[in-house]
Each structure stands twice: as C-alpha cells, then as structure tokens.
Amino acid sequence: MSRPKSLVANRSAGPSTVESALGQGVRSLSLHSDSPQLDAEVLLSGVLEISRTALIARGSDMLADPDLRVYRELLERRRSGTPVAYLTGRREFWSLPLKVTPAVLVPRPETERLVEVALEHLPKSAERAVLDLGTGSGAVALAIASERPLARVVGVDVSPGALGVARDNVCSLALPNVTFRLGSWFDAVPGELFDVVVANPPYVADDDPALAALAAEPALALVAGPAGLDALEAIITEAPQHLSRGGWLLLEHGGTQEHAVAKLLERRGYAGITCHSDYSGLPRVTRGTFPPPLKERS
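The structure corresponding to this sequence follows.
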C-alpha cells in the first residue's frame, strides 16, 4: 500500500515532523487567529491531502521539504489575514462542501440560522418558490434546496465573480432545483413572486472597526452605508412586490441591528415581525410577512 502524499517512513522526531510542523504553525498563528490549532491542522492536512484525523495519527512522520515550504507559505498568508477558506478553496456549510474564493464571503456558521428559519416556512411535501438575495457562494440557496427538493430556488447576486462560484457549487452538488441570476436585488426577478425571500445582505457600517479584520473579503458584500442598513432597507422596501400572498421575508443582520430592522419592517407595513438569535445568543435573523390589502383578506 502506498503511503499518503509527502509522508516518509522515518519515525525519528525532528524539526520537519508532522507534529513539530503543527506546533510551529500553532505558535505562528497564536496572535493572528481565534483558532490557531484548527487553522494549522486544516492547512497542513490540505497540503498533504489527508484528513485531519490521519494527520494527527502520523505525527512522527517526516515532511518532505517541498510540502513544508508550501505549508509555511500558507501560514504566512494566514498571518497576514487571509481566511483559511481562501487558502484551501473550500468551506463546509450545512454539511455541504462548497468552493470558496475571494470573490465571495466565507460562509459563516451563524448564517445557518437563516436556513433554519427559512425551512420553517417551507413544507417538505409542497412546491414553493424561494429567492435568495446576495447569494454569494450560493450557500443559503443550496442548503435550502438540499432540504426541500420540491422547492424552486433562485439565487441572485450583483457580482459575476460570485455567481461563477455559486454555479460551480450547484454543479458539484448536482442540485437540479437551483438557478442563479445576475442582478441587483429584485432587478433580476422582474414581476416574479416568491413564497419565501431570504437575504444575507451587507450590513456593516462604513466606519466599523471590524472591517479591518475582514479586509481580505469583498467589501461589496460587507459594507452598507453609515449605519449598515442601506441594503436591508432597500430589500424591505421592494420585497412586498415580490412576495406571494402569505409570503415571508427573512433577513440576516448584525447582532445589534434587530431593533432598527424591526422598525424598518413596521414602517413598511409588515406583520408577524419576529427576531431569532443565532447559536451564540445574538439577535441574527428577523422575519416579517406582508399582509394582503384589506379587500383581498377573507
């Protein structure tokens, strides 16, 4: 049986063993990452093309010099702020393996809450139309489509680069009920109605100090005016024209924006406004339905 890439049968400890390389990586990233151990393991396992479990099991194996050089280059890029997902080109979301490039935001665990809330409004046995605004890598659209095969899911993004990534992901996952379109918000779906509209739009304020740590990710998908509400307000304003009777608008937002988002929904006439917290306990997803005119109500 052939050995995994770049590992040789030298069991003596030394500066180029897997274990020592991991230790060096953790120390190198300790001041530059919230998860230095995980980052070091993911990067080295990617270089060696083995699982993280296999990586730990082969801690005393020696690394070949070319792979050690590549690993150290990746560590340096991580130290400079490049997300691990951009270095590996992959990110898991909703247990789906996704392609990720600097053209899209790195999918985050808290966004899975948006998927959960959307699924509450999508019966498994019924056909429904779903619109995902600002789809990026397609993470939310693909997650919903994987759970609701009868749903017709449309993802929209203004970035051609982002749509290229999303289309690669839908091809690799072979989900036939998802399509992607280029356009700014609802411009890509003129005259169409949807039962559920979901959006993870830009919601960071122009001068938010947090942007420094997000410099590697596309500003177009992050920044939304002085209060971070410009994109949210635009979606809230236009959505009623694209919601089916009894349809819902679901919005991801910042952890301190729930009251501002609720007020925007109230002013526009939405009903059933509710906020859902993410797994960290922060307000993350607010939903509302736009009631039909009085003359249409039974």
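Residues 101-296 form a domain with the Rossmann fold fold (CATH 3.40.50.150).
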